Amino acid sequence: MDSNLDMIYKDMVTKVQQEIALQQVMSHIAGVKKDMIILEKSEFSALRSENEKIKLELQQIKKQVTDEITKVRADNKLNLNLEKSRVKELYSLNERKLLEMRTEIVELHAQQDRALTQTDRKIDTEVADLKTMLESHKLDNIKYLAGSVFTCLTVALGFYRLWI
To answer: Which residue ranges run through the membrane (predicted)?
Structure first.
């Protein structure tokens, strides 16, 4: 029984030893809690810093995208304005060419009208000359005919007188 009691006493602890063991376990638990809090804070800090880095990168990317959009808009506006001015220049050039063509057409019509007028005058002059020449030939023919008739009549009268 003594040996059993000795064994039980060995397995048993005193209240002081139990309090010391409890204090050791509690300090060990407190250390583990501190380590967990430190670890948790460090992980949280790491996540927070990584989140801040991602936010900064996102802001930079957003700024770059905004700058690119602004640049593309400005380029498009510039290209559109250049195209508008080019179209206006082409329009004015075509208007000038059209006016020149109209002027040339008017000049050609005027030249054609002058040529027609000159041709009409020449034709009228030629017709008048031909009428004058025809009248003069008519008179000459009438003179020759009258002369011929009188000559024939004179010759006939001369023969008649000779026979009579």
So the answer is: 144-163
